[in-house]
């Protein structure tokens, strides 16, 4: 299993500002994933972050809105840019368990945008 | 259109009884199914999984059943304990690494 530290755990932000969420893993992993869970909704994959290359974004998510960094094999950041109340969600970092099927998740970042 | 559906947003069960959480899917290409449990202010934790080549997988008090023809799976918890109270997510993928499709979750409350 992997131990994933994610911070901040929660934040309240003003409309138009940006927030950067950090994710630290206790072991080297090839791929890291960023998910969003809007209130009452399922977890939705935002993008896959690979070390040394551009992140791969899912349909409906763009780099300008959710820039991602992956400077090494244990760390990644997700920025939520130019926030609006619709961005109020839980954002989750995850890594695969090595089998390619099972994911381990960080504790999440509860974001509220006023 | 949701590919993984959990139609019951909540379920309440008495301690010691069986909890049955249901999940339906629409994509016949899904070949791996997982259940995650989530406590408040924590990330989801993996609970149990099943491959499409099986129809049952058991791990202690937790059993997952898969009915491919009906595109339906269920998670059985026997006996249910108050510590099982959490939100349970069903997820599926079609072999793409990490690209899990999640349901909206079912909140299970186990009453003492």
Description:
- The complex is a heterodimer of chains A (114) and B (112).
- Chain A is an all-beta fold.
- In chain A, 0% of the residues lie in helices and 52% in strands.
- In chain A, strands 2, 4, 5, 6, 9, 10 and 11 form a seven-stranded mixed β-sheet that branches.
- The mean pLDDT of chain A is 92.
- Helix content of chain B is 0%, strand content 54%.
- Chain B has no helices and eleven strands.
- In chain B, the strands form two sheets. In chain B, strands 2, 4, 5, 9, 10 and 11 form a six-stranded mixed β-sheet that branches.
- At the A-B interface, strand 5, strand 9 and strand 10 of A face strand 4, strand 5, strand 9 and strand 10 of B.
Features:
heterodimer, A: 114 residues, mainly beta, 7-stranded mixed β-sheet, 4-stranded antiparallel β-sheet, globular, B: mainly beta, 11 strands
How much is the radius of gyration of chain A in Å?
13 Å
Poorly predicted runs of chain B: none
List the secondary-structure elements of chain A in sequence, H or E.
Answer: EEEEEEEEEEE
Number of helices of chain B: 0
Radius of gyration of chain B: 13 Å
Parts with pLDDT < 50 across at least 5 consecutive residues of chain A: none
- How many strands appear in the DSSP assignment of chain A? 11
Percent of sequence in beta strands of chain A: over 45%
Largest sheet of chain A, in brief, is:
7 strands, mixed
Strand percentage of chain B = over 45%
């Amino acid at each position: 299993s992997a131990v994933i530290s994610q911070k901040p755990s929660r934040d309240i932000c003003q409309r138009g500002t940006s927030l950067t969420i950090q994710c630290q893993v206790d072991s080297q992993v090839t791929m890291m994933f960023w998910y969003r869970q809007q209130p009452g909704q399922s977890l939705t994959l935002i993008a896959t972050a690979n070390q040394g290359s551009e992140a791969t974004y899912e349909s409906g998510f763009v780099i300008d809105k959710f820039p991602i960094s992956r400077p090494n094999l244990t760390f990644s950041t997700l920025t939520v840019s130019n926030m609006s109340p619709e961005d109020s969600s839980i954002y989750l970092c995850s890594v695969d368990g090595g089998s390619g099927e099972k994911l381990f998740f960080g504790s999440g970042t509860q974001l509220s945008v006023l | 259109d949701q590919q993984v559906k959990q139609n019951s947003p909540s379920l309440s069960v008495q301690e010691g009884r069986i909890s049955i959480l249901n999940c339906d899917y629409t994509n016949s290409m899904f070949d791996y199914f997982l259940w995650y449990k989530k406590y408040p202010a924590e990330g989801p934790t993996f609970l149990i999984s099943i491959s499409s080549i099986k129809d049952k997988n058991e791990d202690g008090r937790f059993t997952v059943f898969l009915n491919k023809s009906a595109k339906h799976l269920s998670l059985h918890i026997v006996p249910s304990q108050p510590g099982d109270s959490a939100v349970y997510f069903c997820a599926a993928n079609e072999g793409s690494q990490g690209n899990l499709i999640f349901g909206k979750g079912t909140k299970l409350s186990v009453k003492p």
